[in-house]
Amino acid sequence: MDLKELAEQVGLEEAEYLDLLNLFVESAGADLLKLESAVAEGNAAKAHEASHSFKGSSGSLGLNSLFDLAREIDDQDRQGVLAGLEEKVKQLRCAYEQLVGLLAQRASG
User: Which of 59, 69, 76, 80 has most Cβ atoms within 10 angstroms of its Cβ?
Assistant: First the structure.
């Protein structure tokens, strides 16, 4: 993932983009926990709220792989269908953790 390129795609300087990514990690992490909990509880409305929020924020930052996964989940839970979402939510968690790792690596290096 080329952060400089992503920043350019959304029309921001790299430093500004990094600030927004750090805010995204915080808010999206909360959305992801809410989504995981909602799917485990079988609460489609709560799952939709969380996936929709995650989808919007990841899309606005040009994080296409995260956006695409969140969109798939959002499309399904919006219809009240949670069957089979566990695997997609795990994929979303994995992609999110990769971003978190990249940002941590960048901050320490």
Answer: 69
